[in-house]
UniProtKB/TrEMBL annotation:
Protein name: AAA+ ATPase domain-containing protein
CDD domains noted in UniProt: RecA-like_protease
Alphabetized SUPFAM superfamilies for the sequence: P-loop containing nucleoside triphosphate hydrolases
Family in the record: Belongs to the AAA ATPase family.
Any GO MF annotation of the entry: ATP binding
Domain spans labelled AAA+ ATPase: 125-257
PANTHER family recorded: 26S PROTEASOME REGULATORY SUBUNIT
Keywords for this protein: ATP-binding, Nucleotide-binding
Length: 336
């Protein structure tokens, strides 16, 4: 481990500076990954990610990143929190995507660092991103990766939970959320965004939904803060063009092709020794239409079985049988 990083860790402890600690920890994890110490890197990530959320909020109240104590907004009616703050570490390597999309993600910190120069030309960096595409393709994960790249905590908003049964309350909830995010630098994720953004001209839609959609678009338009706003949906067909226009960038997360599937298998099987006959390319070939989340599930199951069988290596025929079981599972899910 590099000596300056050890010093920074100690210094951050003395200064009670979470931001400094986090930055050093992230560099250490990246170094270990480069050295191919995947198990250690994974353990370190798990430790960082298990940081108690309440503690995080307490600490961040003292941090320079946020303004003084910010209470989490709650729904007036039922009293539940309207958002969750999450600080988990992911590196860009955790995301296996079409290189064109990955490049756009990679560019976000660079764009933000040009904020002042952009402003001198009357421009702003791109801040509003819409992620659409099939389930399990990495939309939520991408928001976490951006949050790690920028060192901004993630504010996770589940749209279905803020749509209140009381007329008028939903817009109030949205206002509270925007008031909250104005007070800091975050990566905001409006998840399952389509719940609220159903086509505004849908005759079956209640007038309240139309009003809420209008309200949301106004808030999105007038948002002037420094956060990155992301919205994710796998029902992009439900969104109308007025919504699409509000975003600076729309990224489509497609199912992975064979090459990307190989990379995903390689990544998720890297933590254990593989049997000689294990052919990653063959696994990628027989998993057409599988999402990265499907592949991650299959790999985890293969690891579990190897451990239970006490064989300490991943065997090709076991992975193939899990793939076949998963095909059946997908068939059942599709038929319901
Ligand atoms: N592109 C990817 N690269 C690597 N792993 C991925 C990728 N996409 C998904 N995964 C794995 O699958 C898990 C679930 O993915 P994620 O929650 O980001 O999907 P999603 O697109 O948000 O799905 P949904 O539309 O159902 O919300 C991730 O935590 C990760 O383990
Ligand atoms: Mg998601």
């Amino acid at each position: 481990m590099r000596s300056e990083l050890i010093k920074e860790l100690f210094q951050s402890f003395i200064e009670n500076d979470d931001t400094k600690f986090f930055r050093a920890a992230v560099e250490i994890i990246e170094d270990e990954e480069k050295l191919k110490h995947h198990l250690l890197a994974k353990d370190l990530k798990r430790i960082i990610n298990s940081k108690n959320q309440n503690k995080l909020i307490l600490n961040t109240n003292n941090s320079k990143k946020y303004k003084v104590s910010i209470p989490i907004p709650r729904d007036n009616d039922k009293g539940f929190p309207l958002l969750e703050i999450k600080e988990r570490y992911f590196s860009l390597d955790d995301l296996i995507l079409d290189p064109k999309i990955k490049k756009k993600i990679e560019n976000i910190p660079k764009e933000l660092s040009f904020r002042e120069i952009f402003a001198s030309y009357g421009l702003r960096p791109k801040q509003k991103y819409l992620f659409c595409g099939s389930p399990g393709t990495g939309k939520t994960l991408t928001s976490y990766v951006i949050s790690s790249l920028l060192g901004y905590p993630l504010v996770h908003i589940r749209f279905d939970s803020i749509v209140s049964s009381f007329l008028g309350e939903t817009s109030t909830n949205l206002r509270k959320i925007f008031d909250f995010i104005e007070q800091g630098e975050w990566v905001v994720l409006f998840d399952e965004f389509d719940v609220i953004s159903k086509k505004r001209d849908d005759p079956y839609e209640h007038g309240e939904t139309k009003r809420v959609v209008n309200n949301f678009m106004q808030m999105l338009d007038s948002y002037n803060g420094r956060s990155i706003l992301t919205a994710a949906t796998n029902h992009q067909h439900l969104l109308d063009t007025a919504i699409w226009r509000r975003f600076d960038e729309i990224l489509y997360f497609d199912l992975p092709n064979e090459e990307l599937r190989s990379q995903i298998f390689k990544k998720y099987l890297s933590v254990m020794k593989k049997s000689k006959d294990l052919n990653i390319f063959e696994l990628a070939k027989i998993t057409e239409d599988f999402s990265p989340a499907d592949i991650s599930y299959i790999c985890e199951e293969a690891l579990r079985r190897a451990i239970l069988l006490n064989v300490n290596e991943i065997r090709f025929e076991i992975v193939v049988s899990i793939i076949n079981e998963h095909y059946e599972r997908k068939k059942i899910i599709r038929s319901v």
